[in-house]
Amino acid sequence: MTTPLQLIATAGLYQNTGLAANTAMLTAISSYETLSLIVPLLTARIVGATANIPSGPGNISRFSNTTIANLNSLGTTTCSALADNVPSSVTGVALTNTIPGLSGAIKVGAATVIPADLTQFMQAFNQADGYVQITNRVINTSRNSATFLGPTFTNMNALTTGDISSVTRDPAAFGADLGRLGNLIDLSRLGELGTPSQLLRQLIITGGLTPGVEGALNDAGVATNIVNNLRDGNYELADSLQNAAYRAMLTVTGDNLAQVLDILDVTTVGILTMADLLNPYKLFPNSFQSLKAVGYGYQANIYVGSTGTVNSNLLTFLPAYYIGIAV
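Structure (tokenized):
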């Protein structure tokens, strides 16, 4: 966008002659004002309005206010151009003693918009243009917000919290629980949150497999070279291996678990096995009762009571395997 300084510089280059009232318009007005029909009317209005005052012809009586008003309204409801008057449908244009007729008002208006000092006009125009652009953005934003955010956020709480309020009714407690989870959650792979492969990938990327975890996995039939493939973000464990990995995690306790928690910087109290790192009831001890399942046409608590019992009503909305027991 052009700045005021650039506009002033440009005006200086033009030497205040680059912008002016449209020459073709002024020529057309002059031609109009010299028409045989218009000259007498303009003369009568000028002389009749200024007679008997120091600047007017002293030997001519001034027209009455009624006569002047009649001259200024002549033809306004039929063909105002025949009397150089303002059409009755036009508002905001006032004729005076020094502005006889619409043609005169146009010339005065042009001289007002384009003053002698064009730098003033340039600055005023830039300010007005900037105001228009900013105002239009505000208007468009207000109009677009009525529908643009609809598919993304359901209400203002969801908008201001980045949709956290759609997940929990207690953002403060939820945030405190999240803070104790350290590097456990990869925000770029939330779709895999809660799966054994996601937990193993995060452990490998953060600090590598510990001997205790590696031994437990091998004992469950999950080879180390297969697990290490998880470094490739596109690699996924087969369902059978995910099941075996989960069972292996149930056996990772004590010092072996402490090593895992240290690598992931998890300080949550009550984690007894590595498999607990897949259990929201254990991961969010202060906020699990506030967690919500939200979908098209429904919203329900995930847990009921204080013992981590999954809300069976979710079976109405979710496939059975979402809350089923691993076998």
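The CA atoms of residues 239 and 245 lie 10 Å apart. Residues 21-113 form one domain.
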